[in-house]
Amino acid sequence: MSDDLNENCGVFGIFGHKDAARFTYLGIYALQHRGQESAGIAIADGSSVKCYKAMGLVSEVFNEEILAKMKGCLAIGHIRYSTTGSSEIKNAQPLLVDHYLGSVAIAHNGNLVNTQCLRKHLEEHGSIFQSTMDSEVIVHLLAKAHGERFEDRLIKALKQIKGAYSLMVLNKDQLVAVRDPHGFRPLCLGVLDGAYVFASETCALDLIQAKYLREVEPGELVIVDRRGIRSLKPFPRARPAQCIFEYIYFARPDSLVYGKGVYRIRKNLGRELAQESPVDADIVVPMPDSGNCAALGFSEASGIPFEMGFIRNHYVGRTFIQPSQPVRDLGVKVKINPVRDVIKGKRVVVVEDSIVRGTTSRTRMQNLREAGAKEVHMRVSCPPHRHPCFYGIDFPTRKELIASSHSTEEIGKYLGLDSLGYLSMEGMIKSMPYKKDKFCLSCFDGKYPVRCSEKPIPKFG
Ligand code: SF4
After folding, report:
1. What are phi and psi of 207, to 5 degrees?
2. Residues 6+ apart with CB under 8 A from 112
3. Residue 437 alpha carbon to ligand 1 centre in Å
4. Which of 34, 120, 188, 401 is 20 to 30 A from 1 in CA distance terms?
5. pTM of the predicted protein model
6. What is the pLDDT of residue 315?
């Protein structure tokens, strides 16, 4: 993807390992692609919960000295993306609160859609919020809920919220993993030396050599404590709405998401794209890194040779993803550069995973022409994005999405292309391991499984 589009968060949790803090550090390290603004770990030792978090990448936030002080066998971790306005430490997670029933820490991936009215109601009844995060509503609801056991109060709180949440909840001696009834965001379960491990993606399990067991199912609560592991399904059944965009762009290609390998699915998308939208070209060039697998599929199906015509600079720091426009423009040139020797005199077909605003793609296509490309075509491995996301992906507003107000032909002209083709909705679904009714497709078709009656809160936790 040429435009910066960001997942909000990644979550990780472990129960029953003496090295819980270090494994959580490694787990969120593997999930760094899901958020780069802040990182945090909360740890419990059976009598209390402590938390350390700061702005920055996981490797910048934690060091050996900090991890050595984090004693305990239960931990949760979180990495977060945000933009200006809410890019502050008070919005970093895990969120730790103390109340008369004990300390609770939560780490949330996703976005809730009814927190504005819940928050107003809670504030009118005396709750004092520390942050602007939607996730904080959950802990206030938890504090007010009645019930004998912790899980009873948690379920009562969760029944009041709507939207997307894959949650890790930690108290002094319990770890609870929850996925919302629609299953918008992924969450998997693994095991390591008898300790249970949860993560947004299996790449986090791989890094610590945990064995993948299964997905946490939509609407499932998995509770781990000294009595063992239990599963509850306390919510009414809801229509499944797993984010399809995890398969297209967000997740790492070496991960399993919703139980299936991302790499193979991305290749399928590329193969389908080559069949639907063929083009006469000399080379297939991926937009690195997210277009790599789809470009491989496109090349295999079309017989056009695959070439790394763009090289990504992997050492560009966060300076170049700051949201101010002048810096963003500079970032376009610094992050990805065309390989003149590969491009010169060639008819190039670029495989992209999506076009959001189109501004960055336009510069990149100009760079290809400057590098001597004879023709520049683009093929996109999903349908046009015409609608915003309310469930945890940082999409621009509808107005900023180029496909919401321009035809494919107009976009192709704006990008300076010889031709542009998107994968159809049918082609995208055909490439997936599940049927259409298992997915959220809202950013493509504008049909929202959970209505957002409120104006979207731009950034959350
Ligand atoms: S709207 Fe798009 S990005 Fe958001 S959850 Fe649905 S499929 Fe994913």
Report:
1. -60, -35
2. 134, 135, 137, 138, 161, 162, 163, 164, 165, 460
3. 14
4. 188
5. 0.93
6. 76
